[in-house]
Specification:
Elements: H1 2-9, H2 12-18, H3 33-44, H4 48-56, H5 59-66, H6 73-93, H7 102-125, E1 133-136, E2 142-144, H8 145-149, H9 155-175, H10 178-187, H11 198-205, H12 209-215
Antiparallel strand pairs: 1-2
């Protein structure tokens, strides 16, 4: 989370300042309206320092939004980082000609960022891995969901074999006449009986062995 935050900041001094938790840390007071307008104009002209200044002096907004959500200290720190990303996005995308105060816009962006984070957590909580441990066996080894639902029988192989047989019979019917088809079925045991030798096929069908050989 902090690495993503640092990538957004582009300012090492600001990065270290944001690592202080807004709940317990001390932050600069909000800028006056006149100073804020100056900083916004400077930022629009490409002044990175003005952008950092606007972020620094609005960090209290992150603390204000985060306090709305009950969370442990560890989770609260995560929310601070996430909310700060929302603040950075707000400052970077704010348009002063929209007749909206920066603080109002920033609070909305901070809260949206936190809500997006909560939605992603709910989505992840619904995902189940087949390798997640669900119990232990008598030897203390972990048993995963995959171990429980795995099946050792050959049912899938049998279904696949049946499909292949039906496909083979269809091709034989399309490519060969009845006698040629009968020779191959008997020769290779494709009707369920053991395969026959060429001599056996010839005797069974009343044809010469050489004819059977040519059809193999």
């Amino acid at each position: 989370m902090l690495s993503s935050l640092f990538a957004l900041l582009g300012s090492e001094s600001l990065f270290w300042m944001l690592r202080v938790s807004p709940v317990t840390g001390s932050f600069p007071q909000p800028l006056s309206a006149a100073r804020e307008r100056e900083a916004l104009l400077a930022m629009q002209e490409g002044d990175a320092a003005a952008r950092d200044l606007l972020i620094e002096h609005n960090l209290r907004l992150v603390a204000h939004v985060v306090k709305k959500y009950y969370a442990s200290r560890e989770d609260q720190d995560d929310l601070v980082s996430i909310g700060t990303i929302g603040l950075i996005k707000a400052v970077s995308t704010f348009k002063s000609d929209k007749n909206t105060r920066l603080a109002t816009y920033a609070c909305r962006c901070i809260e949206n960022e936190i809500l997006m984070y909560f939605r992603s957590l709910r989505k992840q909580s619904q995902e189940v891995s087949l390798y997640d441990p669900i119990d232990n066996d008598s030897d203390g080894n972990a048993i995963s969901l995959l171990d429980v639902i795995s099946c050792e029988d050959a049912m899938l192989e049998q279904v696949d074999l049946s499909d292949r047989q039906h496909l083979l019979y269809r091709y034989l019917a399309q490519a060969l006449d009845a006698r040629e088809r009968r020779i191959l079925l008997l020769r290779y045991g494709l009707t369920g009986q053991p395969p026959m030798t060429q001599r056996q096929v010839a005797q069974h069908c009343g044809i010469s062995r050489s004819y059977v050989s040519r059809r193999n």
